[in-house]
Amino acid sequence: MKVLISILSLFFFIENSFCQDKLVRDKVLAEAYLLYNSEKASWNGTDIFLEKFPQKRELIGGYLSYSESDLHNCIFFDKSEDPNLLAKISFNGSFNIEKAKIDTVQRKLNRLEKDLFTIRQVALKEINQDTIFKTYKNTNLNPIPIIINKEKKVFILTGPQISGVVVLGNDYLLTFNKNNKLKNKKAIHKNIIPIEYNEKTDDAVTMHTHLESTGDIITSTDLCTLMLYKDYLNWKQHIVISNKKVSLWSFDNEHLMIMAKKAWEKISNFKKEKKD
């Protein structure tokens, strides 16, 4: 009877916690996929551009990515103050390189592209002049400009320059007004979290913790990075623990569960009791 009551209590905690966190979960997932689509387009787009247009490499002033309809675009532009397009490479949701569409018609950036370019340039300037932004050995800071629901943001992620490591943390968020003026900048995680991977970490369950300043749940930047490296990892799950919540990201089905830490502790204690 006591076991039945314990099981029912666990389900109550899980269901109640899940309902409360569904809106938060959906919001962070939507933002994470937006970041992922942008970065994935940039990764694949860069590979294609450098392979097909090596003669244009010295002309590149920068690149950025954005989504429209069902396409995810990576554009490369020259070094002009009012830049010209060098190439636009578009992917469908599969990001299949063989199905990518390439447009090399020279033109000025459109309104959306110009806004993304402008806030990206501001972010690069801030990275170079503000000590809030930290750099570490064998890493680089990567600005990702996005515009969603008229909100203009630049996320800055830390990427590794060596293989065999996933880098979480040391990420930042800059927000802008409608005129592309910087409103606020902050560190999301205040530390860097490198996690090594190799064939010995297959089916691993990895974990990191959040300080109160980072928030109660896994961040969109965490999720973006985990999704980007999915094809290189054979991890089973990643867990983020804060003072109040526990976030569980499953790699195989890209499912995110958020529960109260009390519910997580009850489950852990229940499993321990069952083993004993």
Summarize the structure.
This protein is an alpha+beta fold. Helix content is 34%, strand content 32%.
Strand content: 25-35%
Give the terminus-to-terminus CA distance. Answer: 18 Å
What fraction, in percent, of the residue positions are helical? 25-40%
Number of domains: 1
The helix/strand class is alpha+beta
Order of helices and strands: HEEEEHEEEEEEEHEEEH
Please give the order of strands in the largest beta sheet.
1-2-3-4
Radius of gyration: 21 Å
Key phrases:
single chain; 276 residues; alpha+beta; four-stranded antiparallel beta sheet; 4 helices; disordered N terminus
Secondary structure layout:
Layout: H1 2-52, E1 62-68, E2 71-77, E3 85-91, E4 101-103, H2 111-129, E5 139-148, E6 151-160, E7 165-169, E8 172-176, E9 182-187, E10 192-196, E11 205-209, H3 220-228, E12 237-241, E13 245-250, E14 255-260, H4 261-275
Describe the structure.
With 276 residues, this protein is α+β, with helices and mostly antiparallel strands. The chain has one domain. Helices cover 34% and strands 32% of the residues. The protein has helices at 2-52, 111-129, 220-228, 261-275, and strands at 62-68, 71-77, 85-91, 101-103, 139-148, 151-160, 165-169, 172-176, 182-187, 192-196, 205-209, 237-241, 245-250, 255-260. The strands form 4 sheets. The chain has a 4-stranded antiparallel sheet. Strands 5-6-8-9 form a 4-stranded antiparallel sheet, sandwiched between helices. Helix 1 (2-52) packs across helix 3 and helix 1 (2-52) crosses helix 4. The two termini are 18 Å apart. Mean pLDDT is 90; it is low at 1-12.
